[in-house]
Design goal:
Number of strands: 16
Largest sheet: 6 strands, antiparallel
Strand content: 15-25%
Number of helices: 8
Distance between the termini: 49 Å
Radius of gyration: 23 Å
Structural class: alpha/beta
Order of helices and strands: HHEHEEHEEHEEHHEHEEEEEEEE
Strand order of the largest sheet: 8-9-10-16-12-13
């Protein structure tokens, strides 16, 4: 599936479609057909022609000819907006890798706006380290691999098919809204970006995932809630904390790195930290902070609530922590409701 959340809904990064990749491979026309009329109630449909005649349709013709057709479409736009998704599940098509590389080369040569470029995988990942790829476009339910992919490619990671909220018989299209919200929090707090899709069964056989229309799921509002939290952070951008010693956990103990591997989190220096507790449900969490004044909130991603945490200043090591002669004692003890998939927001308010 290729239809993504429309930016107007604020629930996804890209609203592009590459439906041509699933059609019969035929010679492209000399001129692009007219784009469908815009429909304010069908944001996905109104953007579905935005990638023009996608080059992957040219199975037996020059890669330049479909580019000309796509360019004729984009001439009417006269804008640098847009993203190139070279193919949907490229590895399910019978093309040699050299052909995909050539498609990228043509895009680099011919696109005067230098739009973002990527390619979506089925099973086998494309080598996103190649210079013409601007970001990783991928699918996969193992959302914690975001950190590994960031390290491997050094480029933004966009998981636009983390499986879909819905109820169709296929496992990729029947995860719960709670599960999708959880996965997007995990992706975001590990330094990536997640896309929303819906596949709810209905009598009209209209799946938003492929045809656009009305969003029926419970994820979008909660994804927007996360977006609001991210955008309210101090300027400078959030850095993922996995594998990092310090930043609210003891930087002298291996427990810090262990906790960041279990939890997910991101920070803006030492002034602002988000900790997502994943599927763990502790009733207390110890924090190692400096002598500044902090505001600590408990965030419930599903209920979309932000509640001041019951926080206690510590004067020694709490009983629930193991003794560690190399570690320092925590400074704060935070009470939690003991439910999974909650988050903490720790903000310095004064030095």
């Amino acid at each position: 599936g290729c239809a993504r959340s429309p930016s107007a809904a604020g629930t996804g990064w890209f609203a592009m479609a590459t439906r041509a990749s699933n059609r019969e491979k035929t010679d492209p026309p000399e001129q692009m057909p007219s784009a469908p009329a815009s429909d304010s109630n069908n944001a996905a449909s109104s953007t579905s022609w935005s990638c023009g005649w996608c080059p992957e349709r040219a199975a037996s013709v020059s890669v330049v000819r479909p580019w000309r057709a796509a360019r004729s479409r984009h001439e009417a736009i006269k804008s640098s907006a847009g993203v190139w998704f070279l193919a949907n599940e490229y590895d399910f098509m019978s093309k040699p890798m050299e052909r995909w590389d050539r498609f990228f080369e043509v895009l680099v040569e011919k696109d005067p706006h230098g739009r973002l470029r990527s390619i979506h995988n089925g099973i086998e990942m494309y080598d996103h380290a190649k210079e013409w790829v601007t970001h990783v476009c991928m699918q996969g339910s193992d959302v914690r691999q975001t950190v590994r992919l960031r390290e491997a490619y050094g480029k933004p990671i966009v998981n636009d098919e983390l499986e879909y909220e819905g109820n169709v018989p296929n496992p990729w299209g029947c995860i719960s809204a709670e599960e999708e919200v959880h996965r997007i929090w995990s992706i975001m707090l590990n330094g990536g970006y997640g896309g929303h899709g819906e596949t709810y069964w209905n009598a009209e056989d209209v799946l938003w995932w492929s045809k656009g229309g009305v969003l029926h799921g419970e994820s979008p509002d909660r994804i927007r809630f996360l977006r609001d939290i991210i955008e309210s952070a101090p300027p400078g951008g959030l850095d993922p904390q996995i594998g990092v010693a310090g930043n609210v956990f003891d930087d002298r103990s291996v427990d810090s790195i262990y906790l960041w591997f279990k939890f997910s989190g991101a920070s803006v220096g030492s002034d602002y930290t988000l900790v997502y507790l994943e599927d763990y449900q502790p009733v207390r969490v110890a924090l190692w902070l400096d002598d500044s004044t902090y505001e600590i909130d408990v965030i419930d991603p599903w209920e979309m609530t932000v509640t001041p945490a019951a926080t206690h200043r510590l004067t020694g090591r709490p009983e629930y922590l193991e003794d560690d002669e190399d570690a320092t004692d925590p400074t704060h003890d935070v009470e939690l409701p003991g439910r999974p998939r909650l988050a903490l927001r720790i903000q310095r308010v004064s030095a």
